[in-house]
Amino acid sequence: MSRRVVAQRYGGPEVLAVIDVEPAGPAAGEVVLEVRAIGVNPFDYKLYSGAFGADPAALPLSVGSEAAGVVVEVGDGATGPLGPISVGDEVIVYPVSEAYADRLVVSGDSVVPKPASLPWNEAAGLLAVGATAVDTLDTANIGSGDLLLVHAAAGGVGSLVVQLARARGATIIGTARPENHDYVRSLGATPVSYGAGLGDRVRVLAPDGVDAVIDTVGGDEAIEVSVELVRDRSRLVTTVPGPRLAESGFRIVGILGPDGMEPRKRARAALVDLAGSGDIRVRVARTYALSDAATAHADLRNPHPAGKFILLP
Ligand SMILES: NC(=O)c1ccc[n+]([C@@H]2O[C@H](COP(=O)([O-])OP(=O)(O)OC[C@H]3O[C@@H](n4cnc5c(N)ncnc54)[C@H](OP(=O)(O)O)[C@@H]3O)[C@@H](O)[C@H]2O)c1
Protein backbone atom coordinates (compact mmCIF):
# COMPACT_ATOMS: atom_id res chain seq x y z
CA MET A 1 0.00 0.00 0.00
CA SER A 2 1.09 3.56 -0.55
CA ARG A 3 0.08 6.48 1.67
CA ARG A 4 -1.60 9.69 0.55
CA VAL A 5 -2.88 12.75 2.42
CA VAL A 6 -6.38 13.87 1.44
CA ALA A 7 -8.92 16.38 2.71
CA GLN A 8 -11.99 14.39 3.68
CA ARG A 9 -14.18 17.49 4.11
CA TYR A 10 -13.85 21.24 3.55
CA GLY A 11 -12.50 23.13 6.55
CA GLY A 12 -9.29 23.65 8.52
CA PRO A 13 -6.21 21.39 8.74
CA GLU A 14 -8.14 18.94 10.94
CA VAL A 15 -9.91 17.61 7.81
CA LEU A 16 -6.65 16.11 6.50
CA ALA A 17 -6.19 12.37 6.83
CA VAL A 18 -3.64 9.82 5.67
CA ILE A 19 -5.24 7.07 3.60
CA ASP A 20 -3.88 3.83 2.14
CA VAL A 21 -3.97 3.57 -1.65
CA GLU A 22 -3.56 0.45 -3.77
CA PRO A 23 -0.37 1.06 -5.81
CA ALA A 24 -1.27 1.54 -9.48
CA GLY A 25 1.09 0.99 -12.38
CA PRO A 26 1.84 3.73 -14.90
CA ALA A 27 -0.48 4.15 -17.91
CA ALA A 28 1.02 5.21 -21.24
CA GLY A 29 2.84 8.53 -20.85
CA GLU A 30 3.01 8.22 -17.05
CA VAL A 31 5.86 7.75 -14.59
CA VAL A 32 5.91 6.27 -11.08
CA LEU A 33 7.96 8.02 -8.45
CA GLU A 34 9.21 7.02 -5.00
CA VAL A 35 8.85 10.35 -3.22
CA ARG A 36 11.71 11.77 -1.13
CA ALA A 37 10.34 15.23 -0.27
CA ILE A 38 7.18 17.29 -0.85
CA GLY A 39 6.81 21.07 -1.02
CA VAL A 40 4.09 22.71 1.11
CA ASN A 41 2.37 25.83 -0.23
CA PRO A 42 -0.45 28.07 1.05
CA PHE A 43 -2.52 27.01 -1.99
CA ASP A 44 -2.61 23.48 -0.53
CA TYR A 45 -4.68 24.51 2.49
CA LYS A 46 -6.67 27.13 0.57
CA LEU A 47 -7.84 24.34 -1.76
CA TYR A 48 -9.80 22.52 0.96
CA SER A 49 -10.67 25.67 2.95
CA GLY A 50 -13.59 26.41 0.65
CA ALA A 51 -11.86 29.49 -0.82
CA PHE A 52 -12.12 27.97 -4.30
CA GLY A 53 -15.54 26.35 -3.84
CA ALA A 54 -16.79 23.47 -1.74
CA ASP A 55 -18.22 20.89 -4.14
CA PRO A 56 -19.00 17.74 -2.07
CA ALA A 57 -18.60 15.64 -5.22
CA ALA A 58 -14.89 16.59 -5.37
CA LEU A 59 -14.19 14.95 -1.98
CA PRO A 60 -11.90 13.42 -0.89
CA LEU A 61 -9.54 16.09 -2.26
CA SER A 62 -5.94 15.25 -3.03
CA VAL A 63 -3.41 17.92 -2.09
CA GLY A 64 0.03 19.07 -3.19
CA SER A 65 1.51 20.53 -6.37
CA GLU A 66 5.22 19.62 -6.14
CA ALA A 67 7.56 16.87 -4.99
CA ALA A 68 10.97 15.35 -5.64
CA GLY A 69 11.86 11.68 -5.83
CA VAL A 70 13.30 8.73 -7.74
CA VAL A 71 11.68 7.23 -10.85
CA VAL A 72 10.79 3.56 -10.24
CA GLU A 73 8.63 2.80 -13.32
CA VAL A 74 8.22 4.41 -16.73
CA GLY A 75 5.04 3.89 -18.77
CA ASP A 76 5.00 3.43 -22.56
CA GLY A 77 6.07 6.57 -24.37
CA ALA A 78 6.59 8.65 -21.22
CA THR A 79 9.03 11.48 -21.83
CA GLY A 80 9.69 14.64 -19.90
CA PRO A 81 9.62 18.19 -21.24
CA LEU A 82 13.41 18.32 -20.93
CA GLY A 83 14.21 14.84 -22.29
CA PRO A 84 13.81 11.08 -21.80
CA ILE A 85 12.99 9.62 -18.36
CA SER A 86 14.58 6.41 -17.04
CA VAL A 87 14.20 4.25 -13.95
CA GLY A 88 16.58 5.53 -11.27
CA ASP A 89 16.42 9.18 -12.38
CA GLU A 90 16.29 11.74 -9.57
CA VAL A 91 13.53 14.16 -10.58
CA ILE A 92 11.26 17.02 -9.56
CA VAL A 93 7.57 16.84 -10.43
CA TYR A 94 5.56 20.05 -10.92
CA PRO A 95 2.77 20.82 -11.54
CA VAL A 96 0.90 17.84 -10.07
CA SER A 97 -2.24 17.65 -7.97
CA GLU A 98 -1.69 14.92 -5.37
CA ALA A 99 1.91 15.35 -4.27
CA TYR A 100 1.25 14.56 -0.59
CA ALA A 101 2.07 10.87 -0.96
CA ASP A 102 4.96 8.45 -0.64
CA ARG A 103 4.43 7.12 -4.18
CA LEU A 104 3.17 9.14 -7.14
CA VAL A 105 1.90 8.27 -10.59
CA VAL A 106 2.30 11.41 -12.71
CA SER A 107 2.28 12.50 -16.32
CA GLY A 108 5.75 12.54 -17.90
CA ASP A 109 5.01 16.15 -18.82
CA SER A 110 5.41 17.15 -15.15
CA VAL A 111 8.84 15.50 -14.69
CA VAL A 112 12.10 17.47 -14.85
CA PRO A 113 15.58 16.28 -13.81
CA LYS A 114 16.79 17.20 -10.31
CA PRO A 115 20.34 18.57 -10.41
CA ALA A 116 22.63 16.24 -8.44
CA SER A 117 23.90 19.23 -6.46
CA LEU A 118 20.41 20.21 -5.25
CA PRO A 119 19.35 18.58 -1.94
CA TRP A 120 16.00 16.77 -1.96
CA ASN A 121 14.25 19.23 0.35
CA GLU A 122 15.27 22.28 -1.66
CA ALA A 123 14.34 20.56 -4.91
CA ALA A 124 10.86 19.77 -3.59
CA GLY A 125 10.26 23.40 -2.61
CA LEU A 126 11.71 25.12 -5.68
CA LEU A 127 9.24 25.11 -8.54
CA ALA A 128 5.86 26.28 -7.21
CA VAL A 129 7.33 29.46 -5.70
CA GLY A 130 9.99 29.83 -8.40
CA ALA A 131 7.58 29.58 -11.34
CA THR A 132 5.15 31.95 -9.62
CA ALA A 133 8.00 34.41 -9.08
CA VAL A 134 8.96 34.26 -12.77
CA ASP A 135 5.29 34.85 -13.69
CA THR A 136 5.13 37.98 -11.50
CA LEU A 137 8.43 39.35 -12.86
CA ASP A 138 7.34 38.80 -16.46
CA THR A 139 3.93 40.36 -15.79
CA ALA A 140 5.56 43.43 -14.21
CA ASN A 141 8.15 43.43 -17.03
CA ILE A 142 11.05 43.70 -14.58
CA GLY A 143 14.42 44.40 -16.15
CA SER A 144 17.73 46.12 -15.68
CA GLY A 145 17.57 49.47 -13.89
CA ASP A 146 14.10 48.98 -12.36
CA LEU A 147 13.47 49.95 -8.75
CA LEU A 148 11.12 47.26 -7.46
CA LEU A 149 9.14 47.05 -4.20
CA VAL A 150 8.40 43.48 -3.05
CA HIS A 151 5.83 42.89 -0.30
CA ALA A 152 6.83 39.86 1.83
CA ALA A 153 10.39 39.55 0.55
CA ALA A 154 11.20 36.78 3.07
CA GLY A 155 8.25 34.64 1.97
CA GLY A 156 8.46 31.60 -0.26
CA VAL A 157 7.45 33.49 -3.41
CA GLY A 158 8.97 36.82 -2.31
CA SER A 159 12.42 35.33 -1.66
CA LEU A 160 12.53 33.97 -5.21
CA VAL A 161 11.18 37.24 -6.66
CA VAL A 162 14.05 39.10 -4.99
CA GLN A 163 16.76 36.72 -6.21
CA LEU A 164 15.44 36.56 -9.77
CA ALA A 165 14.81 40.32 -9.97
CA ARG A 166 18.37 40.95 -8.87
CA ALA A 167 19.63 38.61 -11.60
CA ARG A 168 17.66 40.75 -14.09
CA GLY A 169 19.52 43.85 -12.89
CA ALA A 170 16.77 45.40 -10.76
CA THR A 171 17.25 47.17 -7.42
CA ILE A 172 14.86 45.83 -4.79
CA ILE A 173 13.25 47.10 -1.60
CA GLY A 174 11.62 44.23 0.31
CA THR A 175 9.19 44.28 3.24
CA ALA A 176 9.69 41.83 6.10
CA ARG A 177 9.53 41.70 9.87
CA PRO A 178 12.76 42.80 11.58
CA GLU A 179 13.90 39.23 12.40
CA ASN A 180 14.07 38.58 8.64
CA HIS A 181 15.99 41.68 7.60
CA ASP A 182 19.40 39.99 7.47
CA TYR A 183 17.88 37.21 5.37
CA VAL A 184 16.26 39.69 2.96
CA ARG A 185 19.56 41.55 2.67
CA SER A 186 21.33 38.26 1.90
CA LEU A 187 18.87 37.68 -0.97
CA GLY A 188 19.78 41.00 -2.53
CA ALA A 189 17.13 43.49 -1.34
CA THR A 190 17.11 46.42 1.07
CA PRO A 191 14.74 45.40 3.87
CA VAL A 192 12.04 47.61 5.41
CA SER A 193 9.63 46.65 8.18
CA TYR A 194 5.97 46.45 7.27
CA GLY A 195 3.39 48.04 9.60
CA ALA A 196 2.42 51.65 10.36
CA GLY A 197 4.66 54.14 8.53
CA LEU A 198 5.68 51.69 5.78
CA GLY A 199 5.09 54.28 3.03
CA ASP A 200 7.37 56.81 4.75
CA ARG A 201 10.13 54.22 5.23
CA VAL A 202 10.02 53.21 1.58
CA ARG A 203 9.93 56.88 0.53
CA VAL A 204 13.27 57.44 2.33
CA LEU A 205 14.81 54.77 0.08
CA ALA A 206 12.83 55.77 -3.02
CA PRO A 207 12.15 59.53 -2.92
CA ASP A 208 10.81 59.49 -6.50
CA GLY A 209 8.70 56.37 -5.99
CA VAL A 210 9.26 52.89 -7.44
CA ASP A 211 9.00 51.56 -10.98
CA ALA A 212 7.02 48.45 -10.08
CA VAL A 213 5.52 46.49 -7.17
CA ILE A 214 5.22 42.75 -6.67
CA ASP A 215 2.85 41.97 -3.81
CA THR A 216 2.46 38.56 -2.17
CA VAL A 217 0.48 39.80 0.86
CA GLY A 218 -2.70 41.43 -0.40
CA GLY A 219 -3.50 43.49 2.73
CA ASP A 220 -4.75 47.07 2.87
CA GLU A 221 -1.36 48.47 3.86
CA ALA A 222 0.45 46.80 0.95
CA ILE A 223 -2.21 48.03 -1.47
CA GLU A 224 -2.20 51.62 -0.23
CA VAL A 225 1.58 51.98 -0.11
CA SER A 226 1.94 50.42 -3.56
CA VAL A 227 -0.61 52.69 -5.20
CA GLU A 228 0.97 55.72 -3.54
CA LEU A 229 4.54 54.89 -4.59
CA VAL A 230 4.39 53.25 -8.02
CA ARG A 231 5.01 55.52 -10.98
CA ASP A 232 3.12 53.37 -13.51
CA ARG A 233 0.06 51.54 -12.24
CA SER A 234 0.26 48.96 -15.02
CA ARG A 235 3.28 47.60 -13.13
CA LEU A 236 1.38 46.67 -9.94
CA VAL A 237 1.32 42.86 -9.71
CA THR A 238 0.02 40.54 -6.99
CA THR A 239 -0.24 36.81 -6.33
CA VAL A 240 -3.25 37.23 -4.04
CA PRO A 241 -6.69 37.46 -5.65
CA GLY A 242 -9.04 40.02 -4.10
CA PRO A 243 -11.54 42.66 -5.19
CA ARG A 244 -9.66 45.54 -3.58
CA LEU A 245 -6.44 44.60 -5.40
CA ALA A 246 -8.26 44.43 -8.71
CA GLU A 247 -10.01 47.77 -8.07
CA SER A 248 -6.63 49.33 -7.23
CA GLY A 249 -5.25 48.30 -10.61
CA PHE A 250 -3.15 45.28 -9.60
CA ARG A 251 -2.66 42.60 -12.21
CA ILE A 252 -3.31 39.28 -10.50
CA VAL A 253 -1.10 36.39 -11.64
CA GLY A 254 -2.61 32.95 -11.41
CA ILE A 255 -3.26 29.75 -13.26
CA LEU A 256 -6.81 30.58 -14.31
CA GLY A 257 -5.78 33.00 -17.09
CA PRO A 258 -5.94 32.10 -20.79
CA ASP A 259 -2.46 30.52 -20.75
CA GLY A 260 -3.17 28.42 -17.62
CA MET A 261 -0.06 26.64 -16.36
CA GLU A 262 1.98 27.13 -19.56
CA PRO A 263 4.08 30.12 -18.33
CA ARG A 264 4.85 28.21 -15.11
CA LYS A 265 5.83 25.10 -17.03
CA ARG A 266 8.10 27.12 -19.32
CA ALA A 267 9.86 28.57 -16.26
CA ARG A 268 10.96 25.17 -14.92
CA ALA A 269 14.10 24.55 -17.02
CA ALA A 270 15.81 27.83 -16.13
CA LEU A 271 14.85 27.55 -12.45
CA VAL A 272 16.31 24.06 -12.16
CA ASP A 273 19.54 25.25 -13.84
CA LEU A 274 19.83 28.29 -11.56
CA ALA A 275 19.18 26.22 -8.43
CA GLY A 276 21.62 23.54 -9.57
CA SER A 277 24.39 26.07 -10.04
CA GLY A 278 23.62 27.75 -6.70
CA ASP A 279 22.60 31.03 -8.36
CA ILE A 280 19.24 30.87 -6.58
CA ARG A 281 18.62 29.28 -3.20
CA VAL A 282 15.52 27.82 -1.57
CA ARG A 283 15.63 28.16 2.20
CA VAL A 284 14.04 25.24 4.02
CA ALA A 285 12.51 26.39 7.30
CA ARG A 286 11.05 23.16 8.65
CA THR A 287 10.48 19.53 7.78
CA TYR A 288 7.50 17.45 8.91
CA ALA A 289 6.56 13.81 8.52
CA LEU A 290 3.95 13.27 5.80
CA SER A 291 1.55 12.14 8.52
CA ASP A 292 1.98 15.58 10.18
CA ALA A 293 0.72 17.51 7.14
CA ALA A 294 -2.12 19.00 9.22
CA THR A 295 0.39 20.43 11.72
CA ALA A 296 2.47 21.86 8.85
CA HIS A 297 -0.64 23.59 7.47
CA ALA A 298 -1.66 24.95 10.86
CA ASP A 299 1.86 26.35 11.33
CA LEU A 300 2.02 27.82 7.81
CA ARG A 301 -1.24 29.74 8.37
CA ASN A 302 0.36 31.52 11.35
CA PRO A 303 3.54 33.63 11.56
CA HIS A 304 6.36 31.21 10.86
CA PRO A 305 10.11 31.13 10.21
CA ALA A 306 11.10 32.28 6.72
CA GLY A 307 11.52 29.43 4.26
CA LYS A 308 9.72 26.45 2.82
CA PHE A 309 7.96 23.77 4.81
CA ILE A 310 8.75 20.30 3.48
CA LEU A 311 6.98 16.97 4.12
CA LEU A 312 9.02 13.79 4.33
CA PRO A 313 7.32 10.45 3.49
N1 LIG B 1 -1.47 33.40 -7.66
C1 LIG B 1 -0.63 32.36 -7.62
O1 LIG B 1 -0.44 31.65 -8.61
C2 LIG B 1 0.11 32.09 -6.33
C3 LIG B 1 1.19 31.20 -6.33
C4 LIG B 1 1.91 31.02 -5.13
C5 LIG B 1 1.51 31.67 -3.97
N2 LIG B 1 0.41 32.48 -4.02
C6 LIG B 1 -0.03 33.20 -2.80
O2 LIG B 1 0.97 34.13 -2.43
C7 LIG B 1 0.95 34.29 -1.00
C8 LIG B 1 2.36 34.08 -0.44
O3 LIG B 1 2.75 32.74 -0.63
P1 LIG B 1 4.14 32.22 -0.05
O4 LIG B 1 4.31 30.81 -0.47
O5 LIG B 1 5.21 33.18 -0.33
O6 LIG B 1 3.81 32.26 1.55
P2 LIG B 1 4.83 32.26 2.77
O7 LIG B 1 6.10 31.56 2.44
O8 LIG B 1 4.03 31.81 3.93
O9 LIG B 1 5.24 33.79 2.97
C9 LIG B 1 4.33 34.74 3.42
C10 LIG B 1 5.11 35.89 4.01
O10 LIG B 1 4.22 36.98 4.26
C11 LIG B 1 4.89 37.82 5.14
N3 LIG B 1 3.91 38.70 5.77
C12 LIG B 1 2.92 38.39 6.62
N4 LIG B 1 2.19 39.49 6.89
C13 LIG B 1 2.75 40.52 6.17
C14 LIG B 1 2.45 41.89 6.03
N5 LIG B 1 1.43 42.44 6.67
N6 LIG B 1 3.23 42.63 5.21
C15 LIG B 1 4.27 42.09 4.55
N7 LIG B 1 4.59 40.77 4.66
C16 LIG B 1 3.83 40.02 5.45
C17 LIG B 1 5.64 36.95 6.09
O11 LIG B 1 6.90 37.57 6.21
P3 LIG B 1 7.61 37.82 7.64
O12 LIG B 1 7.97 36.44 8.13
O13 LIG B 1 8.79 38.68 7.32
O14 LIG B 1 6.59 38.47 8.53
C18 LIG B 1 5.76 35.61 5.33
O15 LIG B 1 7.10 35.27 5.13
C19 LIG B 1 -0.08 33.29 -0.48
O16 LIG B 1 -1.31 33.96 -0.27
C20 LIG B 1 -0.21 32.29 -1.60
O17 LIG B 1 -1.44 31.61 -1.61
C21 LIG B 1 -0.30 32.69 -5.17
TrEMBL record:
InterPro entries in the record, alphabetically? ADH-like_N (IPR013154), ER (IPR020843), GroES-like_sf (IPR011032), NAD(P)-bd_dom_sf (IPR036291), Quin_OxRdtase/zeta-crystal_CS (IPR002364)
Q: Which UniProt keywords apply?
A: NADP, Oxidoreductase
| Cited Gene3D superfamilies | Medium-chain alcohol dehydrogenases, catalytic domain, NAD(P)-binding Rossmann-like Domain
One Pfam match: ADH_zinc_N_2
**SMART domains assigned to the protein according to its UniProt record, in alphabetical order:** PKS_ER
Domain Enoyl reductase (ER) stretches: 11-311
**Keyword Metal-binding belongs to the record:** no
- Asked if the keyword DNA-binding belongs to this entry, the reply reads no
Gene Ontology MF terms in the entry: mRNA 3'-UTR AU-rich region binding; NADPH binding; quinone reductase (NADPH) activity; zinc ion binding
- Please give the GO cellular component terms listed in this UniProt entry: cytosol
PANTHER family documented for this protein: QUINONE OXIDOREDUCTASE PIG3-RELATED, QUINONE OXIDOREDUCTASE-RELATED
Name this polypeptide is given: NADPH2:quinone reductase
Q: Tell me which species this is from.
A: Rhodococcus jostii
